[in-house]
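Thread: Newbie trying to understand structure tokens

Hi all, I'm a second-year student working on a class project, and my supervisor (Dr. K.) asked me to get a predicted structure for one chain before our next meeting. I've only ever worked with sequences, so writing a 3D structure as a token string is new to me. If someone could post the tokens and maybe explain what I'm looking at, I'd be very grateful. Here's the chain:
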Amino acid sequence: MDDSYTMDGTGFLQLANRLERRFDELTSPEALRVAVERHRRQVRDGGAADGCVEGCAISSADGLDHECDHSLRKAELLRQMRESEHAMLYGTGGSADVVPSSISFDIIDTEDRDIENRTGDERSLTDDPPPYDELLFQLVTDLFGGTSWPAMFCVSASSFDAGLIDDCKRFLIGCANTVRRYGMAVWLYDLINDSTKAVFVSEPSDRMPLLIRMLGPEKLRRRAHTKGPSRYGIRGQLTEDMWEHCEQMHRLAAYSMLRWGGDESRAGMVAFMLLTRPELGMRLLREDGAVMSMGAAPDMRHRHTMAYVDELRDQADRQYAWSKGLASRGLGLEDADIDALTGREDGGTPELTDMDWRYAYDARHLIAAYRSLWNEGTPTADEWLSMIESERGIPDEPLWRNVVYLSMIASTLMGAGLAADLVCGFNARDQDRFDRGVARLETMIEVARSEGVILLPVAQIHDRSLEMDELMKLAPGKRERVLREMARAQSDMAAVMLARIPDRTVARRCAAALIQGDMGRYARLVADWMDLDVEVDDEEVDA
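---
Reply by user tm_fold:
Sure, no problem. This is what the structure looks like when written as tokens:
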């Protein structure tokens, strides 16, 4: 039996080729000449003499390498140009200036996010462009969504730094060559395996982008021209960054399954597991025939786990249907839940209405279940799953006393990251942490019952998003945490939508948009699905 995943490798390679062409165009000698001339015009308009800075009287017609009293050669001009571009893109602030490690749709806004019919030469090099290239950003985000690589490509194209440009080209060409020769599944498995191995051997992967962490422009340029592990900084930060890179590669794999999965029926489940239980997601990727042929360990014990999870899911669906049939009011919900759900004016389709009722039902039962088990000695979900995987028995517990199911349902309600306080607080019997998790879930129940589950991502991501000027006022460490927390919230909401939206195609497209951080696209997908006769404006979505 061939278990290989059916994925659109051709589409991936076509997009990679478009990205490579656009990147080459933007980093070509001609692009450099135009950028230098643009910088000179800006300097001249600011009051300096024609063709140079610092009051140089030599005409620009003499070229980049002319000498003058100020010794302003090509290298110095490029340095000043880069600083100017950096200030335009990221603001100013002296030594606090940094290049963000994650450029997303929340940080850089674009007027036209439809790249399907745009060509590489649509924007003329002689135009006066913004400090980043919109089409480049669209292409790299569509290819490597949920990672720091969009930041690397945008900054490389803006700075013309040879070291950064080489890093980007090496990663892009390496990805394309692997997909072309072995297929999408091998590429994704290799990225995850490489990043995971880096964590456990404490040596950074050469495929980890320098902008995995915010860096000042001078530090970024120094590291771009440094070889070996030292280019990634000090050991304490390096360990944290390697874990972040590992998380990003799982996120990229999930996004790629959704973006390029086509008609692959397993794509949604593999993506959900990559986002919520990465070790299971990686094992599911290993089922691909091409991955196995590359020497991956032929260990299929996880199939016992997946079969058990599927059985729990079916049992839960039957129990919910039975509960609905018994009670016209109730379902274990609080009066405030019922009043809000029945009193909403928006009505909605039966699918949407049932999504909201089921969300409230699962959430209330989850909280009650954890509280009822608080004073009992229970194994963790991981311990039970290990027992199931090794065929040492199957837990014989009612659904709402089964810690495997409780952990799983928490991920479908909140995502693995946002559910960590609830689940880990229960496992450790840490009352304060558990209460924080319950409080977070309560706020999500409020959104689901009053506005709808479909608006949960808007609320959760908006709470963590900052405008660029606000972001740049934060200390570097705080900035890094904000950006990473935002990316995790996007991934968490992607997992929730995968689990909660009943239309599998819509669920996958919405989840992919959320991993990218493209809330405008998410809103348009939702509006189309709900058959709303409205035009979604990106600025309105942000507001």
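A couple of things are worth pointing out once you decode it. Residues 99 and 356 are 40 Å apart (CA to CA). Confidence is low (pLDDT under 50) at residues 47-130, 537-543. Feel free to ask follow-ups in this thread.
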